[in-house]
Amino acid sequence: MRAAEEMLEQRDGAVATEARTGFTGWRRTDLWALLGFLALAVLVMIRLWIDPNGRVLDGNDDDHGIFLFMLAHGERVVFDGAPPFFEDHLNAPVGVNMMANTAILALSLPLAPVTHFLGGGVTVAIILTFGLAGTAAAWYWLFARHLVRSRRAALVGALWCGFGPTMISHANGHLNFVNQYLVPFIVWQVLRLREPGRAVRGGITLGLLILLQIFINEETLLFTALTLGVFVLSYAIMRPAEVRAVARRFLAGLGVAAGVSLALAGYPLWYQFFAPGNYHGQPFAPTDFVTDLLALGAYPRQSVAGIEAVTQRLSVSATEDNTFFGPVGLLMIVVALRMLWQNAAARSAAIAGLVLLLASMGPRLQIGGVKTAIPLPFGLISHIPVIDLVSVTRFAMVPAIIAGILLALAADRIDGSSPVRRRRFWIGMTLALVPLFPKPVPTIQGDPLPEFLTAGIWKQYVPEGRTLVPVPLPEVTTGRTAQRWATLQNLDFAVPRGYFMGPADPPDNHTGSWRAPARPTSELLTMVQATGLRPVISDAERERIRADLVYWRAAVVVLIPRAQNAAALRATLTDALGKPQLIGGVEIWDVRSLVGTG
C-alpha cells in the first residue's frame, strides 16, 4: 500500500524491494531482541516479583488494588460461575457494572487459574511484565516486517514504543494501558484495507482485533481510532487522487470490521452504557489533569536521569507521565520529523500526534504547573459523550508512540547518509535514549493477611448472602487495605463499598465517581480515620449504624489492625457495637444477631 511504502522510502527515488516487505526472514538476532524485551520487562518489575502477593506498587497503590479486584472477578467468573459483566461481591448489596469499569476480561479470564492457585498478585506481575515485553515485541514485528530494513531501526522503535516513559509510567499500576500489543496489528490491518480483495477478509480480522481490544482497554482503542482518523484525513488532503482510488474498498472494509465488532460486542457495550451501574462523565473536570507544556522536554521520574521533585510538578501522578521525552529525546524527535518531512505518510502521522498532544493539554495551556489563560481547542469538544469519559492527559500516549515510529523511520533512513551524518545521528540517539533507561518500579510492603482470612475462620461468621465489613471500609485511598484483603481472597466473601467507577448518587446523580454513594456510617468512619477523634455516639447514631449494617447485610465487622488511627476506630466501634472479640489476629464484632438472619 502506498502509505506504508512512503514510510519505507529511505532515499530519493524508488523503494528498494526489501524495504517493501521489511526483513526477508527472521534471524537469531530477532530472537535475542525478543528475549531482551522480556529481560528488560522483568528488570522493570523485579521489585514486585520478589513478593507479588505481599508487595504493592508504590507509584499507584490505589490502581493496584482496583486491578486486583478485576482479576478476582475474572477468577469468580471461571471458578464460581459469576456473571462476566456484573460483580456483586464488591459494593454489596448493589454490586458493580464491570463493563463500566476496566474489567480487562480478555486478560483476567485466561489467567483465572493463576489467580485462583497462586494469587492475584502473581497475575498482576505476569500481566505487567508480559504487557511491556509483548508490546515491544509487537511493535518490533510491525517495524521489522513492514516499515524498516534495519534491525537497529526496528529495535529503536520497539524499545521506545514498549519501554518509553509513557509505558514505564503506566507500569506503576495500569495493567490495561501496559498491554498494547494489539495496537500495531490493528493499525496494520486498517492500513491494509485499501488493498484489493481485503474488504471482507481484512474487515473480519480487524473486527476480531477490535473485539479483543475492547476487553483489554477501550481507551486505547479510542485513541487508536482517533489517531487513524486524523492520519487518514491528513493523508487524503495531501494525496486526494490516491485516496479517492481506494476509498470504496477501504470504507467497505471498515464497514465489515464495524459490523463484526458490534455484532459480537453489542450486548457488552449496551450493558456498559445502559445497565445498572452505568455513569456519565468523570469525577473531575477536564482542567484538573492535563499535559504540562514543559513535560515534553523533562525526564520522567522512572528514568535514570529523572528528578522526582521536577516530575511531580509537571505530572498529575506516577502513572500519568505520558510525555517526558527528555531534552535530547525531544530534539531527536524534531530531527526525525525534519528528515522525514517529504514523506506524506510521516507528515500525516506527525499531524495526528500533534492533534492528540494538543487534546492532552486540555482546554487551557499549563506551563510549569501553572494554568494560564491561553485557550486550547480541547475546550470545544470536552463535553462530547465518550470524550468526557477520558482522562485528558492520556491523549498524550498517542504522540509518544508516534515519536517512536518517527525515530525508527529516521534511524532506517540515516543508513543512506554520509558517515559524518550517521555518526552525529547515533550520538544524538544515544544521548536521547540512555538517560531514559527505566528504573525498577517502586513497591512497598502491604499489610499481611490475617489468619482470620487465610485460615478460613471467616466462614464460621459469614453465611451465604451476608457480608464481611472491614474497617476502614474499602474506599479509594482510605480503604485500600480492605479492598486488597478481599481481592487477594478472590472475593470469596462479599464486602460493602469499594474502589471502582460507578454513579455518584443514583438515581439523582449519574456522574462518574470512584466510590459508592455516601452512607452515614461510611462518612463517620472516614472522619474518625482521618482525624483520630473519637465522636460521641448517640442513640440516633447507633440506629443509623444499625441501619447501614442491615443495608449491607453485615455478618461480621473486622478492624484492620494497622489502619490509620486504629485506636479511635476501635473505640468508635466498641461504643456502637460493644466489645470486640480477638480471633485469628483481628478484632471482630459479630453482628449476625444484631442484623438478623433475614
UniProtKB/TrEMBL annotation:
Keywords: Membrane, Transmembrane, Transmembrane helix. It comes from the Bacteria. The chain crosses the membrane at residues 31-50, 117-142, 199-216, 222-238, 250-270, 324-341, 348-367, 395-414. This is Glycosyl transferase. The lineage of its organism: Bacteria, Bacillati, Actinomycetota, Actinomycetes, Micromonosporales.
